[in-house]
Amino acid sequence: MSLHTRTRIKEQAVESTSQMIAGKTAPALPRDPHKAARRTLWITAVAVIAVLHLLAIAGTDFDPALLVDGWRGMARFISDAFPPDLSWDKVILPGLEATLVTLWIGLLGTTFSIPTALVLAVLACRTTTPHPLAYQAARSILSFFRAVPDIVFALIFVTAVGLGPFAGVLALICHNTGVMGKLWAESLEETDQGPQEALSTTGASRVQQLTHGALPLVIPQFVGLLLYRFDVNVRSSLVLGLVGAGGIGLLINQAIKSFQFDTMLTHIIIVLILIIVVDQASGFIRRKLAV
Amino acid sequence: MDTTQLARPALSVKSLAKSFNQRRVLDDVDFTVNRGELVVFLGANGSGKSTTLKCVAGLATPDSGSIELDGIHLADLHGRDLARARSRAAMVFQKIHLVPRRTALYNVCAGALARVTGLASFSPAFFSRELREEAMACLDRVGMADRALDKVGRLSGGQQQRVAVARALCQRASVLLADEPVSALDPHAAENIMELLATLAHDENLAVATVLHQPELAQRYADRAIGLLHGRIAFNGPVQNLGDDFLDVLYSPERIAA
């Protein structure tokens, strides 16, 4: 075959491929039949959100000008708080003791809700629940405990057991059962059902399938969520102190009511340190668990 | 063990039928698996191989048909009795389904849960010494005794599948069902597992039924093949009789379905 013919064959080949591409005209851009409807939907959504915000601004007396005008009051408050009162006997020591109580409330509120949260989580998880009715019932109970704020529980328990940290613990147990039960149920639902299914074929009972198949898989997630809740509960127990459930929250409230803003600042600094320590510690353990 | 028990097939399935959303998945499926025999199920995706095994293991409910394990009719039983009778058939899965965070030994012990009562139902810390010794013996039978205290998640795929087989042995089953046990494994590990299954059938007298997607593995290790086509048994005989022509038919169902 001469060089000439070879080039011709090549040319022909190129021609035929380009013809093939040219012959097949590129498809026209498809017309989106829902374009108008989608645009209307967007405009409506934006309008509704805007109206809601206008109503909210009116409803909350939201007025930045007021804040600017009132700067003097705030400055006085802050200058009264400085320097913080660092007397050991009168401020720091009681503050530390009360902080410990706050920590204890958060700890017991978290750990004592483990049994209830665990039972309800298992019942409220689609893959482990024994019956649809148990599932619905557990979901409802969890929603109720989640929906009632811990501060409302605290006010109720104060009427039963009186002012003090015990009411705070009871309040946290209730609210935390609702939140942790829900979080655990979700993590249980997302986990691999394989081991559980495999154990069902061995003739293992439902409880055995759960304790030997499903739960061992989710223990790291459960502990992670537990630590996260501990973190949150310590913060909540601060607020519970404000309604009389003991701890450092109570001291802060008393300091504000008696205009001892320098004492208040010391307590707030102690709280800040506590929160940072708890946050860092639980974060550290969770990172260790993730590995 | 008396002779009548030996003569009787360990697993006997008759006129098994199953539909999903009005689509027939299994249609009049009849077969037996004897002790000492390795039977392999072949067929294209959706031909009903896995569903057949799942019906035996209780992971799927057949619409009709009878399943007999060691001469016991499953249809006559309910609740715990059914679970106990069913535990005569153990299942090994493609995705292995062990608990990765627990040791091989504890995973094998879990195969015996149907016989376990009391606190051991709640935590492996309470598994009895006898059970742990039995599990150790099962691990030894699959050649994994030296890794007993390793967490399963640290083992290779082939090693994990061996542990899963040991769990099935600890169940004291007479029938071993395996649903694509080698599909997730590399060729070498696949050979090992097939060798293990053949040994369990031939040397330990178990009835082994496995779904495979590799006809050449079937031809090398199995005694008998059952070919499924659109939920019906299209072949049931010695693997030697499984010709290439027939395999072509088995794996191109669209062509003959049309």
Distance between the termini of chain A: 68 Å
Instruction: Label the overall shape of chain A.
Output: extended
Secondary-structure element order of chain A, N to C: HHHHHHHHHHHHH
How are helices and strands ordered from N to C of chain B?
HEEEHEEHEHHHEHEHEEHH
What oligomeric arrangement do these chains adopt? heterodimer
Q: State the largest interface.
A: A-B, 21 and 33 residues
How many beta-strand segments of chain B?
A: 10
Percentage of residues in strands of chain B: 15-25%
What does this structure look like?
The complex is a heterodimer of chains A (291) and B (258). Chain A is mainly α and 291 residues long. Chain A is 81% helix and 0% strand. In chain A, helix 5 (88-111) packs across helix 9 (165-190), helix 7 (132-147) packs across helix 9 (165-190) and helix 11 (206-242) packs antiparallel against helix 13 (261-290). The longest helix of chain A is centred in the C-terminal third of the chain and has 37 residues, at 206-242. The termini of chain B are far apart. Chain B is 35% helix and 24% strand. The mean pLDDT of chain B is 89. In chain B, the strands form two sheets. A six-stranded mixed sheet of chain B has the order 6-7-8-3-9-10, sandwiched between helices. A four-stranded antiparallel sheet of chain B has the order 2-1-4-5, with helices on one face. The longest helix of chain B is centred in the last third of the chain and has 16 residues, at 187-202. Classes of the chains: A mainly alpha (291), B alpha/beta (258). The interface between A and B is medium-sized, with 21 and 33 residues.
